[in-house]
């Protein structure tokens, strides 16, 4: 298919290329007859201006980039929808990239977004800030971190206070008699993986629960590692009676292997997930979750990015988390007395 160019429009309208260009760019320095001819010709040819070529002549492209860690993760799918809608309402289109929890894929997408001359980028960063993340900062491309941060980089961010929700989850499990809680952690190369693991470690220590290092399995925020984590934890000589998964895909993997092993969630073993995915409440039993608002996160991230694009320096925002107790964790631990001190 041959692309229609402005030369084709000018030829059909019977005007010069310069006149056609002035009409299509909205310049008033053209006659009414020329404007009518060019508009009619453009409509007949279904002409669309080359956005990249126009961007080279303008400061802004009216587009932003969004790079999420894993598009299969329902949390990031919801985040992408919220960001796209908020950006569109502000007059921007969103170009989406998926890092797939891999730094090399993150770098490839960031370089592509930079080459597309987007006006700014919202990114859930991986790694230590090297590679393309560092390039964003060096080139002074407006950037906002979302969900995750990078140590040592002064970039405005929207994140979640994981400490409160995780502490509530551990206290709730202790209150119904669990003392050995298995934790399926995210990767320690991410700020969320580190922060949530640290919060869990502090909570079990403060509540006097088992700090056996074998009760922690380090996953990668993807479903397969949730399944592997459950398998490893249940094979321990003294397996846990409750599980806490540090994100929703790992919780999905955990649910799959628990069902495969014939264990009844909420009766034989308790389970809590970080992230409140809509259909978690529809499971039988409904899944207890640590909830935080992805809608607020996406909306605030776009608002902050627009401030940065406009030359501002917005303060970072930390959103709250809270435990929502459902049937998957509310029954007493098998054979364990309930400890009133934890209620």
Automatic annotation (TrEMBL):
The keyword DNA-binding applies. Keywords: DNA-binding, Repressor, Transcription, Transcription regulation. SMART domains: HTH_LACI (SM00354). GO terms for molecular function: DNA-binding transcription factor activity; transcription cis-regulatory region binding. Residues 4-58 form the HTH lacI-type domain. This is LacI family transcriptional regulator. It comes from Cryobacterium cheniae.
């Amino acid at each position: 298919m041959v692309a229609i160019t402005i030369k084709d429009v000018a030829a059909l309208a019977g005007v010069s290329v310069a006149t056609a260009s002035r009409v299509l760019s909205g310049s008033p320095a053209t006659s009414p007859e020329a404007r009518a001819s060019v508009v009619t010709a453009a409509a007949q040819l279904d002409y669309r201006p080359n956005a990249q070529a126009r961007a080279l002549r303008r400061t802004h492209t009216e587009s932003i980039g969004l790079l999420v860690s894993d598009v299969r993760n329902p949390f990031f799918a919801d985040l992408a929808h919220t960001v796209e809608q908020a950006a569109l309402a502000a007059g921007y289109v969103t170009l989406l990239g998926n890092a797939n929890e891999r730094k090399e894929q993150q770098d490839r997408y960031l370089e592509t977004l930079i080459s597309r001359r987007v006006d700014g980028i919202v990114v859930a960063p991986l790694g230590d800030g090297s590679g393309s993340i560092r390039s964003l900062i060096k080139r002074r491309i407006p950037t906002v971190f979302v969900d995750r941060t990078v140590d040592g980089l002064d970039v405005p961010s929207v994140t979640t206070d994981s400490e409160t929700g995780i502490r509530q989850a551990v206290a709730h499990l202790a209150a119904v008699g669990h003392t050995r809680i298995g934790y399926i952690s995210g990767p320690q190369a991410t700020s969320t993986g580190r922060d949530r693991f640290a919060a869990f470690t502090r909570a079990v220590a403060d509540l006097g629960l088992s700090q056996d290092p074998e009760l922690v399995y380090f996953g990668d925020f993807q479903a397969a590692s949730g399944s592997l984590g459950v398998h490893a934890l249940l094979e321990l000589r003294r397996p846990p009676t409750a599980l806490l998964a540090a994100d929703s895909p790992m919780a999905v993997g955990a649910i799959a292997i628990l069902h495969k092993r014939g264990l009844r969630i909420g009766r034989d073993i308790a389970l809590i997930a970080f992230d409140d995915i809509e259909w978690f409440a529809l499971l039988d039993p409904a899944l207890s979750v640590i909830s935080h608002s992805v809608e607020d996160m996406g909306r605030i991230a776009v608002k902050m990015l627009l401030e940065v694009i406009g030359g501002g320096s917005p303060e970072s925002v930390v959103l709250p988390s809270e435990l929502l107790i459902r049937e998957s964790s509310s029954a007493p631990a098998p054979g364990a007395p309930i400890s009133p001190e934890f209620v």
